[in-house]
UniProtKB/TrEMBL annotation:
Gene it is expressed from: SULT1C4
Keywords for the protein's UniProt record, in alphabetical order: Transferase
Molecular-function GO terms, alphabetical: sulfotransferase activity
The organism of origin for this protein: Caerostris extrusa (Bark spider)
Family of this protein: Belongs to the sulfotransferase 1 family.
Stretch list, region Disordered: 295-326
Segments forming domain Sulfotransferase: 64-307
InterPro entries linked: P-loop_NTPase, Sulfotransferase_dom
Protein name: Sulfotransferase 1C4
Amino acid sequence: MRMQPLKLIDSDIFNSAAFCHSQCVSRSSGMPIPYKEFQGFRVPVGADEGRLRAACNHPLQPGTVVISSYPKCGTTWLQHIVFLLLRGGRPADSASQVVEAVPFPEQDGLEEGANPRALKYHLPFRQTPMSKDAFYLYVARNPKDACVSYYHFLKDLPGYHIKDFDEFFEAFLAGEVPYGDLLDHVLEWQEGACRTSNVLLVTYEDLSRDREAIIRRIANFLGLQGLDDAAFKDVLEYSSFEYMRDLASRDDFMLKYLLQSTGGQKGTEGHRPRMLRKGVVGDWRAHFTPEQSARMDEHFSRKMKDTSWEKAWPKDMAHERPATEP
């Protein structure tokens, strides 16, 4: 059964009480984590009320592809893959071309009347515009790697002033960061996927280990089974993490783009935010202590108990690297 179009956001909630512009402070760690409140949900400090409202209520055309995830869980990777699939494997000339073709309306807004074929979101399911005729791709990542990647991303952005990983870990575990608790985000999208047939859930880990198989699943889901072998080979070649990282590093566009998320604040000398860092599975083991790993395991077990995610990532979240991994 397909989900009918939903009006998820009522216009009367977009008032000063629902959208707080003040800096909030992490209660667990005492570390100031700047964010804004939007309908009881935490969004980045640079978020704009008007753009968020428009993003939540953007009318989707039939066939629109909506790519979503919690931050640093693979949204940008899927953004590139969908860009390539919709162009028959033809690569981008620049990183800006991908961003313009697959925009991020909750941050960048959309021009009036614009109807791009694909959109990128980080909002929870309840705030994402829904249509029975759209396609929804959601990518999840194990919380330990997501935590480390999010830490490296935010610490280099002006305005966040994150001291070290230990402090960030406490805030992340408590959900006191922009976009809240990763596991709540995943569960809400999982619940949504159970109610409609036009949501495809994939994981960052599967994408990393067998990109070809996941891209074929995505292509089939989008009705692109007719993509010829040569075009698919190009999609595979130009969607490697190394290629995407090189594309993003060729000019300063991505740096300027990232700084928009801080509301235009100037960066600190020597800090260069990166959208794409390592792209590997298991990097968290170089950051987590055994005690932090155990606490995240307990948090995961409590949140995911009796859900389809309960047994997810057993090897990827094990503190000792499995012997079968390099």
